[in-house]
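Here is a protein:
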Amino acid sequence: MKINWGTAVVLAFIAFISFILFFVVRMTMDSNSNHDLVTEGYYKEELGFQKKMDAEHNANNLSTKISIEKTDLGWEISFPEAMEPQKLMGTVSLYRPSNKHLDFDLPINISNSNLLIPDKRLLDGRWDITISLEYENKNYLHKESLTYIKN
């Protein structure tokens, strides 16, 4: 059987299109490929962007910054000592980029200037921590990316 050049070009196009379609179908059906947005309400969160920028600016202008340290018991978040712990209100959000099922929030409810995130709640790997708090009608926002490694 003899194939002329026109038939060869058509067969080449069909082979190329089949090759591309194979990978498109494979990537959309693969359970390991996660195509979720970072947050469910992505567009809604964008509307409050200026408020977040102002809160971050407030946190950066504190005389004593919010700090996060690794201890034997987990992560210890230290708030400025000038702030009265009973007046602090807000949340600490831990976001795991690799698995949204590991994300969790902790309310800020402390009696001294430290908050402990227990070791048993954390898995090894990267965590994005967002601390949003309100103190005397002023909002503060601290964001940090950390890698946690158990002892």
